[in-house]
Write a structure and sequence with these properties.
single chain; about 450 residues; alpha/beta; binds zinc ion
Length: about 450
């Protein structure tokens, strides 16, 4: 039996239903699972001091396109609107291959890990030059994060009136066959799973109605989750009204894209009826505040969603539209945006942190994660609040108001992935070097 005792934390923020916070407390990890939480715990195993630190559940990222870490701050896309931004980046992404997918995924996951993330989903919807979902799964296994990759897809290219170049779209039968392949090869439905695969056509404007419907049937047959982009901005809603004759929520419902096994990214423009639909059906939302700001999409009605009972998690979104991937920073941004929209008393620091933990776990169907309680998996972020960013704080647990934006230590399934602010699983310097070499090659 492998035991690790995290001892003497200043505060343990459990994120249980009651919002319990324990001062001067310990967390005991046994075989990847939280065995006990409280004061004065002992072990015959390893003792890991958490003095001067806040322990939170590991943060959960519900929306990303990891491959985009190779196209951060591309000049032509820096100030473009969504559709123009896509047109700038598609030709660059068409040059990617397996190594670009692997290295960019590692870079994105390392960045997330250092910001407290223990589980990330990913939405990979283009597969040029032999790239496969397998490349990103291999990357995540090496980094040591829990991973929910989704097999994305685009099938309507320029010659069919779509946005992406024909070279980046696939035949719909090939898409569905590859979905089956990666689910059968990698999806693990058991509690504590390190990999769960989802099915994720890129968006209603890049695949056919048939593919949306068939993807939902396939996902239900296989018992996996569904994910896509929905109601991201005004152009998106206008496209839906013009092309499908209905709002995005109606389109989703008609095709089987609502339910507790579905989560949609952005949902900035959901109206009251759509919020009610999502609440009634248990459909989840990946809220991506920095990306929404970066692309000028608007402020998602997160307060109204939460009040209606919609499951909302946080996502950093792809690095080409953020352009960073700091998940604790995303929680702060979520809090700030709801205050701009609704007032300073409408989103507390603690609620923002709850979105990043319990919220994400609920959206991704993981009741084994998101809180520090006996029997939950040992995914834990340890934040050093003895440094300058927290100096003078009266409330160490209000991390997103005053606190570090990087973890000191990170545990995933009881295994230490970050120690003293450094990755223990991959050589970050070598990874950075290779990532920059690949980015430079893409500029030619
Ligand atoms: Zn996205």
């Amino acid at each position: 039996m492998a035991e690790t005792l995290l001892r003497g934390a200043k505060v343990v923020v459990t994120m249980d239903d009651a919002g319990t916070e324990l001062a001067s407390a310990d967390v005991l990890i046994r075989d990847g699972v939280i065995a006990a939480v409280g004061q004065g715990l002992t072990t015959t195993g390893t003792v890991h001091s958490a003095a001067g630190c806040v322990i939170t559940p590991g943060l959960i990222n519900t929306h990303h396109h990891l491959y985009q870490t190779l196209t951060r701050a591309v000049p032509g896309g820096q100030d473009a609107l969504l559709f123009g931004w896509l047109r700038t980046l598609y030709p660059i992404w068409a040059k990617f291959g397996p190594e670009e997918m692997f290295i960019s995924a590692q870079a994105g996951l390392v960045e997330l890990a250092l910001s407290g993330c223990t589980l990330s989903s990913d939405h990979l919807y283009l597969y040029p030059n032999g790239a496969r979902l397998d490349d990103t799964i291999a990357a995540a296994a090496q980094v040591g994060l829990r991973f929910h990759p989704t097999r994305g897809a685009m099938s309507i290219g320029e010659s069919d009136g779509g946005l992406p170049p024909d070279a980046l779209v696939e035949r719909e039968d090939a898409i569905l066959n590859d979905c089956i392949r990666v689910i059968d090869a990698f999806h693990d439905p058991r509690p504590g799973a390190m990999v769960r695969v989802g099915v994720a056509p890129c968006s209603p404007f890049s695949v056919s109605t048939d593919l949306m419907r068939n993807a939902a049937l396939l996902a239900r047959d296989k018992g996996v989750m569904l994910h896509t982009h929905l109601a991201e901005n005004d152009e998106d809603v206008a496209y839906s009204l013009e092309r499908f004759g209905c709002r995005p929520g109606q389109y989703a419902e008609d095709l089987g894209w609502t339910g507790p096994d579905v989560w949609h990214a952005h949902c900035v423009k959901l109206d009251a009826g759509e919020i009610d639909l999502f609440a009634r059906s248990g459909t989840g939302v990946a809220h991506c505040p920095c990306s929404n700001c970066r692309l000028g999409s608007g402020i998602a009605p997160v307060r109204a969603m939460r009040d209606a009972g919609v499951n909302v998690g946080l996502g950093v979104d792809g690095s080409a539209s953020n352009d960073s991937g700091n998940l604790i920073g995303e929680a702060r941004q979520a809090m700030l945006l709801q205050r701009v929209q609704n007032g300073a008393d409408k989103m507390s620091a603690r609620e923002a942190l709850r979105l990043a933990t319990r919220g994400g776990a609920a959206v991704l169907g993981r009741d084994d994660l998101g809180q520090i309680a006996t029997g939950k998996r040992a995914d834990l972020a340890i934040w050093d609040v003895s440094g300058i960013e927290s100096a003078g704080s009266w409330d160490a647990a209000a991390l997103v108001l005053a606190g570090p934006t990087r973890v000191r230590d990170l545990f995933v399934e009881g295994r230490q992935v970050v120690g003293d602010g450094r990755m223990l699983t991959v050589d970050t310097a070598a990874l950075t070097l290779r990532q920059n070499q690949l980015a430079r090659a893409l500029m030619d």
